[in-house]
Amino acid sequence: MAALGWLTPRRRSATARSVLAGEAAAEAARKSSQTIEALDALDVTAPPVEPEFPVAGDEHAAAFFDLDNTVMQGAAIFHFGRGLYKRKFFQRRELARFAWQQAWFRLAGVEDPEHMQDARESALSIVQGHRVSELMSIGEEIYDEYMADRIWPGTRALAQAHLDAGQKVWLVTAAPVETATIIARRLGLTGALGTVAESVDGVYTGKLVGEPLHGPAKAEAVRALASAEGLDLSRCAAYSDSHNDIPMLSLVGHPYAINPDTKLRKYARERDWRLRDYRTGRKAAKVGIPAAAGVGALAGGTAAAVALHRRRR
Question: Coil, helix or strand for 214?
Fold first, then answer.
């Protein structure tokens, strides 16, 4: 058995060198653990952390929101026309064409310049001779009746985020500035840029001041307002659903495509713009059409009949 003694472990007392080696190993283990944690935090496969936006307290930043199909489902001018029809500004036989225009707009999810111009010109002829104060009062009622329930909650939350950050938020729309101002006030926004109808002594003349605030005109309006407000456009944000608003979106440092049409979606993806889509389901549902599309479109878009008024005159 003595011959096998070398196989039996012997208890030996720790020397100064072994104590030092043990302490060094323990310290190295602690450091290696910290190194692994640091490397994990820097893992290149982890998604980059997006900087906080909007930036709280940035007084040189603001947000600009398109209205139709961005903040509100459908076109504001059509909803406004529906309210005018209810108040007998035009006749029932004019209803069908305007309803069809609104249904087309909501199904296609894009702005048709001919349809929009037709509706604007018809609305101008209808309000001609009426007082601005009268239409503003009616507009308040129409918002409650036909517009309040058509605001996209997701877009409203985006606007509120800018307000909470202490920034001004403006609507920018081809809709009449009076209608846009009512909507902006009801949503707690700063104000609105919209198409200006000429008035003399508080009475509409049936003409526009310049042209409708559409496409490049929106960009010019935003540029002018930014200059007057002392804003830095590179720190501002803009939101729209339509490729017609690419000039406005391209002005700012933070462009967003909201419920985008096909052309804007493609353009935004090519430039790595942020996209938000609050529509769900198939295409009809994506643009906010009720399940019973035909009935819903007629009920939700009777305002389009305004388009026939000009033709009758």
Answer: coil
Q: Which pLDDT belongs to residue 210?
A: 83
Q: What ranges make up the beta strands (E) of the chain?
A: 62-65, 168-176, 191-195, 197-200, 203-208, 237-240, 254-258, 274-276
Q: Which of 306, 287, 308 is nearest to 296 (CA)?
A: 287
- Known catalytic residues are 66, 68
DSSP calls for 32-55: HHHHHHHHHHT-TTSPPPPPPSSP
Measure the CA–CA gap between 240 and 259, rounded to whole angstroms: 8
Q: Which two tokens stand for residue 144?
A: 């409650």
pLDDT above 70 for 53: yes
Confidence class for position 171, pLDDT limits 50, 70, 90: very high
Measured distance CA(47)–CA(303) in Å, rounded = 47
What average pLDDT score do residues 43-71 get? 80
SS3 14: coil
Global confidence as pTM? 0.70
Token pair of 83 as six digits: 């309210």
pLDDT recorded at residue 16: 67
pLDDT surpassing 70 at residue 1: no
Looking at residue 294, what is its pLDDT?
Answer: 29
Beta-carbon contacts of 171 under 8 Å, excluding residues fewer than 6 positions away, are: 64, 65, 66, 67, 71, 180, 183, 184, 189, 191, 192, 193, 194
* Cβ 71 vs Cβ 162: under 8 Å: no
Distance from first CA to last CA of the chain, Å, rounded? Answer: 125
The residues near 264 (Cβ < 8 Å, ≥ 6 apart) are: 240, 241, 242, 243, 245, 246, 257
Distance of CA 229 to the CA centre of its chain: 21
Work out whether strand 197-200 and strand 203-208 pair parallel, antiparallel, or are unpaired: antiparallel
Strands 197-200 and 62-65: unpaired
